[in-house]
């Protein structure tokens, strides 16, 4: 028999997780997270030095980014 917590976990959506994060994270924490995502995105998409590109090649593919 399932209890309410199992049912709540089964119907947990991305929207629910975002709302939970909004309630528990502070403004500076959100700003830091956005800055880290932007820095990672810049690094993965725009830094194309051959040596750096080769070192990040497998990471890009594991992140789901097609680089060629």
Word description of this protein:
The protein has 68 residues and is mainly α. The protein has one domain (4-62). It is built from four helices and no strands. The N and C termini lie far apart (50 Å). Keywords: Membrane, Transmembrane, Transmembrane helix. InterPro entries: CbtB_put. Pfam families: CbtB. The chain crosses the membrane at residues 30-47.
Helix content: over 70%
> Which descriptor suits the 3D outline?
elongated
Question: From the helix content, strand content and strand pairing, which structural class follows?
Answer: mainly alpha
Number of domains: 1
Transmembrane segments: 30-47
Protein name: CbtB-domain containing protein
Pfam family, one: CbtB
Keywords: Membrane, Transmembrane, Transmembrane helix
In short:
The protein has one domain. Helix content is 75%, strand content 0%. The longest helix has 20 residues.
Which features would summarize this protein structure in a list?
68 residues; mainly alpha; 4 helices; 75% helix; 0% strand; transmembrane; CbtB_put; membrane; transmembrane helix
Secondary-structure map:
Layout: H1 4-10, H2 14-24, H3 27-46, H4 50-62
